[in-house]
Design brief:
The complex is a heterodimer. Chain A has a single domain (24-114), classed as Rieske [2Fe-2S] iron-sulphur domain (Rieske Iron-sulfur Protein, 3-layer Sandwich), CATH 2.102.10. Helices cover 0% and strands 50% of the residues of chain A. Chain A contains no helices and 12 strands. In chain A, a hairpin with a 4-residue loop joins β5 (51-52) and β6 (57-58). Chain A starts with 8 loop residues before the first strand and ends with a strand. The relative contact order of chain A is 0.24. By secondary structure, chain B is of the alpha/beta class. Among the domains of chain B are: 2-108 and 240-302, 3-Layer(bba) Sandwich (FAD/NAD(P)-binding domain); 122-236, FAD/NAD(P)-binding domain (3-Layer(bba) Sandwich), CATH 3.50.50; 415-475, Arc Repressor Mutant, subunit A (Orthogonal Bundle), CATH 1.10.10; 487-543, no CATH class; 629-782, Sulfite Reductase Hemoprotein, domain 1. Chain B has 28 helices and 38 strands. In chain B, the strands form 11 sheets. A 5-stranded parallel beta sheet of chain B has the order 3-2-1-7-19. A 5-stranded parallel beta sheet of chain B has the order 9-16-10-11-12. Chain B has a 5-stranded antiparallel beta sheet with strand order 21-22-25-24-23, sandwiched between helices. In chain B, β14 and β15 (226-228) form a beta hairpin. Chain B is globular. The relative contact order of chain B is 0.05. Classes of the chains: A mainly beta, B alpha/beta. The A-B interface holds A 13-14, 18-23, 25-28, 33, 36, 39, 41-42, 51, 55-59, 62-70, 72-73, 75, 77-78, 80, 82, 92-93, 95 and B 51, 58, 60-61, 441, 444-445, 481-482, 503, 512-516, 519-520, 537-538, 540-542, 544-545, 548-549, 553, 555-557, 800, 803-807, 810, 812, 814-815, 829-830. The structure holds siroheme, flavin-adenine dinucleotide, iron/sulfur cluster (SF4) and FE2/S2 (inorganic) cluster. Siroheme binds at residues 552, 554, 560, 562, 590, 592-594, 596, 598, 624, 630-631, 667, 669, 703-707, 743 of chain B.
Chain lengths: 115, 830
């Protein structure tokens, strides 16, 4: 995943317990809206753009986390399109996909990496 | 080999796909398109008005062409072909040589020579740009007309209605609508459907002129009558785009169209024509499926295969919402060699006709209006892929002997074409299932079936079901990939093992991490069984969006607020509170169809504050967001009404307060009427009561909505206590046994033994469970609490009502509204 030619700037997002278990929140970083998810069941953190590319709704942080086979996914609350949390790819065969961001946790603080 | 395609429309695009498929990197592909966008789905053009943006109609993004190594010149039409040198010149001056040239220039709208067609306000209906112009103009138009009552004209008419022009007229020159597809009786039935939708139909009307000074003001007809309209959409047929071919000296038909032989070759053997510009055997095919077939045959031929185009079936189904119309084979066949069977049901607006050979052994064609559910089956029979039943009339009357749709699918030959847009056979679909594609979506992705007009979707699903069943994989309907149980089985497991949270249920009975299907289902079951606060930790993030935030999410990401107004009764003081809350938070206010008031456009952060004020004034949650009891409507009843037999309002309030908050497989609605005049519409509800001289009649399992069904009488002349007892049993029995998202009507339709069995269980307690059902219901009733009250008072829950976790109180800056009639509305989707 890590790309040596770009430097990642880690931005503090929120505290670990600000994010509900197996749920998401929306983080404002600079002027961007980023959806941050704590997939507690899998012990994983993910971040994607908050805007659902389908109808351009700022809604993914309010979506449902889940898995398809072993692929972790987020499902938009509006029309239930699902996207891979790993790659951002739309899992319903549509052409649209999500931007994803790296996440790290240090001392109960969550950081999102911007390029 | 260097192939140049002129035209990047639907068929030109399909030709790219097919050439790559057959020839891979042996072909160098260059495409010229006149339109500025890459090829898009013209068949679904009208959807552009309602829910698509232009990108969503794209057949493939520009990046696709790059990835495949196709050179694509958009917005640059070809203006000249030099056949001797085998090269061509584009508008911008690009010169290109070719080995083979494909003309896929499509057609344009035919504009009849009527004076005034150049006036502002007159449109055609062919491209995204046309639709953009129509949409902009329609904002200031109050009336509109469509010239042409064919397939396309009717579609345009419906689109104008949907744009809000309620005064829309269809003008047809022939004595009936869709003169090429359906017969006079069918057309008459169709007209009455369309008039119900709100279109005004004029047939046998010849337009003489379009009137107006600076812009259109109306139409004048040959009979000197006039019609005032603010806009006109011309949809009088198509004209093949053969101008380039004409310039190049290729042979054309008398009435236009580029002449091609069975190899799709023009009079120059290295130039081909496909799609709507091609004239084959005297026919211009104005549909996409024949064009796709031509693209396939041409590409396969260039790869060295010997294939011919020999014509194509013109069966069509109109994709108008709300009216079924279809024709297949030869719909208008008449004469001594034809046996025609017709059924007409003017009450339900259904007309069906099938044309059989004189010996009754072959189906030759037909027309369906009002109910085209048997269309797919009829087309297959007509093409000879399925046997004609012994009594052919069963095809349109419905079988008396009980042959089901699945049996129909089994009878279908393997090479039957199921998806005619993509040319996918039954065998390809079965192969796809065998390769492990066990859902409709994955079959669609794998084969392409169902990705065109979508008309074959039910058949693809039936084939899938039949295959899965044959493999023993359909023993029962399981919830999803995470749970190998039905809803009813999960209900019992949760209850017996006393499971309390989504994760406990998943650990005990499921696998994986859950998904958008099982999460809401399981937490709904937990609520139906224990009636705990639905946002209890662990279950909160498994709730579907509306339940998660205790409000209905709207376009743009705001929410609506619906306080409960039991029985529809409200004091003036409470009305004032609703008014002042709406004013304070800037909410759009509307009386709902359920006898209460909806406040729309609330920001997530404002929801707890709004509810704080409402609860302070004595309101509670209306559960408009939940699969739960919605409203119990009432009529005014005996307290005021001169006919009222009992006090329907008091009884409605009592019922609403008893069952409020209870979670069920789907929403539940009820109503109470004070007499047989039935002003509360109780017979259209999941359960309803109508006062009689001696007590109440209890109706169950009705609904309005997309498939309305009247409720059926469960018990008559019973007193209030008995009503409650029976309703307790009925609802609890439904909650325990129904499939997910099944309303009571559908549940009863599927219940083995039907109403008679339901009566035995509820009235006679044939299963011996009545006491248990009543006790379970009483448990839920006793456990009721207003979840909004809990949400605003519990800091853990309340803190979730914010948009930005790191900027609490700051509202989502992307939310926008437009003003409307001194209130506001959500901004249209992008
Ligand atoms: C607000 C309201 C329209 C209005 O402004 O009048 C409404 C709004 C919605 N209805 Fe309705 N229905 C409303 C009365 C009705 C009625 C009339 C009635 O209840 O008497 C019906 C037909 C009666 C019936 O249900 O049997 C009705 C049949 C539906 C259906 C079709 C149900 C069916 O079984 O076919 C749906 C779709 C669904 O639930 O799956 C639906 C779904 C919806 C949804 C929830 C669609 C959605 O998922 O967003 C709409 C929510 C809008 C919102 O955000 O608030 N709505 N809906 C009405 C609210 C009534 C209330 O006070 O709670
Ligand atoms: C509103 C609407 C609804 C429809 N509904 C249905 C339906 O339900 N079912 C159905 O089967 N069919 C339907 N059709 C018809 C269907 O869209 C057409 O049959 C199909 O698009 C034909 O494809 P084509 O590639 O031949 O033509 P087109 O899709 O028209 O493409 C031709 C392209 O070539 C371009 N072109 C022309 N000349 C040149 C040039 N000299 N140089 C470069 N480019 C050029 C044009 O600009 C155009 O982009 C509908 C059509 C419309 C407009
Ligand atoms: S009928 Fe109901 S669901 Fe449909 S648009 Fe109206 S309110 Fe929404
Ligand atoms: S807006 Fe996300 S699925 Fe439609």
């Amino acid at each position: 995943m890590s790309n040596p030619t770009t430097t990642i700037q880690w931005m503090p997002a929120c505290r670990v317990d600000d994010v509900p278990s197996n749920g998401g929140v929306c983080v404002k970083l600079e002027e961007e809206q980023i959806a941050l998810y704590h997939f507690t069941r899998r012990g994983e953190w993910y971040a994607t753009q908050n805007e659902c590319p389908h109808r351009k709704q700022m809604a993914l942080s309010r979506g449902l986390l889940g898995s398809q086979a072993d692929e972790p996914k987020i499902t938009c609350p509006f029309h239930k399109k699902s996207f891979s949390l790993r790659t951002g790819e739309c899992l319903n065969g549509d052409e649209c996909s999500l931007r994803t961001y790296p996440v790290k946790v240090e001392e109960a603080m969550v950081y999102i990496g911007l390029e | 080999m260097k192939v140049v395609i002129i035209g990047n429309g639907m068929v030109g695009f399909k030709c790219c796909e097919k050439l790559l498929h057959y020839l891979g990197d042996q072909v160098e592909l260059i495409v010229f398109g006149e339109e500025s966008r890459p090829a898009y789905d013209r068949v679904h053009l009208s959807d552009y008005f309602s829910h698509f943006n232009a990108e969503e109609l794209e057949l493939a993004p520009i990046s696709w062409y790059q990835e495949k190594g196709i050179t694509l010149h958009l917005g640059d039409p070809v203006v000249l072909i030099n056949r001797e040198e085998k090269n061509l010149v584009s508008h911008s001056g690009k010169e290109t040589v070719y080995d083979f040239l494909v003309l896929a220039t499509g057609s344009s709208a035919f504009v009849p020579p009527i004076p005034g067609t150049e006036k502002p306000g007159v449109f055609i209906y062919r491209t995204i740009e046309d639709l953009e112009l129509i949409r902009d103009w329609s904002k200031k138009a109050r009336s509109a007309a469509v010239l042409g009552g064919g397939l396309l004209g009717l579609e345009a008419g419906k689109a104008l209605l949907d744009l809000g022009i309620t005064n829309t007229h269809i003008i047809e020159f022939a004595p009936r609508l869709m003169p090429r597809q359906i017969d006079a009786a069918g057309s008459e039935m169709l007209s009455s459907h369309l008039e119900k939708l709100g279109l005004t139909i004029h047939t046998s009307k010849q337009t003489a002129a379009i009137e107006g000074e600076d812009q259109i003001s109306g139409l004048r007809f040959q009979d000197d009558s006039r019609l005032q309209v603010d806009m006109l959409v011309i949809s009088a047929g198509i004209k093949p785009r053969d101008e380039l071919a004409r310039l190049a000296g290729l042979e054309l038909g008398h009435r236009g169209g580029i002449l091609v032989n069975d190899l799709l070759q023009t009079s120059d053997p290295s130039i081909f024509a496909i799609g709507e510009c091609a004239l084959h055997n005297g026919m211009i095919y104005g549909l996409v499926a024949p064009g796709y077939d031509m693209a396939d045959i041409l590409a396969s031929q260039l790869a060295g295969n010997n294939r011919h185009f020999t014509g194509f079936d013109m069966s069509t189904k109109l994709k108008l919402i709300g009216v079924d119309v279809a024709s297949f084979g030869d719909p208008m066949l008449e004469g001594p060699d034809t046996r025609i069977i017709r059924v007409a049901d003017s009450i339900n607006g259904v007309y069906k006709r099938i044309n059989l050979s004189a010996d009754g052994k072959k189906l030759l064609g037909g027309v369906l209006v009002g109910d085209a559910s048997s269309y797919n089956q009829l087309v297959q029979v007509c093409k000879g892929f399925m046997p004609l039943p012994e009594k052919p009339e069963e095809l349109i009357l419905g079988s008396k002997t009980g042959g089901s749709a699945a049996a129909g699918i089994a009878a279908l030959a393997e090479d039957a074409i199921i998806c005619s847009c993509e040319g996918i056979s039954k065998k390809s679909i079965i192969d796809a299932v065998n390769q492990g594609n066990e859902s409709f979506d994955s079959i669609k992705k794998c084969t392409g079936a169902g990705s065109g007009c979508g008309g074959c979707t039910p058949m693809v699903k039936d084939i899938l079901q039949a295959e899965l069943k044959a493999k023993g994989k359909l023993g029962k309907v399981v919830v999803c990939e995470h749970f190998g149980y039905s809803r009813q089985e999960l209900f019992d497991i949760i209850k017996i093992k006393k499971l309390q949270s989504y994760d406990e249920v998943l650990d005990t009975a499921g696998k994986g991490d859950g998904c958008e299907i099982c999460k809401p289902l399981v937490v709904s079951l937990l609520a139906s069984i224990w009636n705990d606060m639905i946002l209890k930790k662990g279950n909160d993030t498994a709730q579907d969006s509306n339940d998660r935030f205790l409000a209905n999410i709207q376009k743009g990401g705001t929410y609506s607020v619906v306080p409960r107004i039991p029985g529809g009764e409200i004091t003036p003081d409470k009305l004032l509170v609703i008014g002042s809350v709406a004013k304070k938070y800037g909410l759009y206010t509307k009386i709902t169809g359920g006898q209460r008031i909806d406040l729309f456009g609330a920001h997530l952060d404002d929801l707890p504050f709004i509810w704080e004020e409402l609860i302070e004034a004595g309101f509670e949650s209306g559960h408009a967001y939940g699969k739960a009891l919605r409203t119990v409507k009432s009529c005014v009843g005996s307290t005021w009404c001169r006919f009222g037999l009992h006090d329907s309002v008091s009884f409605a309030i009592r019922i609403e307060e008893r069952y409020r908050g209870i979670r069920a497989p789907h929403k539940i609605k009820s109503a109470v009427s004070g007499c047989i005049r039935e002003c509360a519409e109780a017979q259209s509800k999941d359960f309803g009561l109508i006062a009689t001289e001696k007590g109440w009649n209890l109706f169950v399992a009705g609904n309005g909505g997309s498939k309305p069904q009247h409720a059926v009488l469960l018990a008559s002349d019973i007193d209030e206590a008995t009503c409650i007892k029976y309703i307790d049993r009925f609802l609890m029995f439904y909650i325990k046994t129904a499939d997910p998202l099944t309303r009571t009507a559908t549940w009863l339709n599927k219940l083995e033994g039907g109403l008679a069995y339901l009566k035995e269980v509820i009235l006679e307690d044939s299963l011996g469970i009545a006491d248990e059902l009543e006790a379970e219901m009483q448990g839920l009733v006793d456990n009721y609490q207003c979840e909004w009250k809990e949400a605003i008072n519990n800091p853990e829950i309340r803190k979730r009502f914010q948009h930005f976790v790191n900027a609490p109180g700051e509202k989502d800056p992307t939310v926008q509204f437009d003003p409307m009639r001194s209130q506001k509305r959500a901004m249209e989707w992008k």
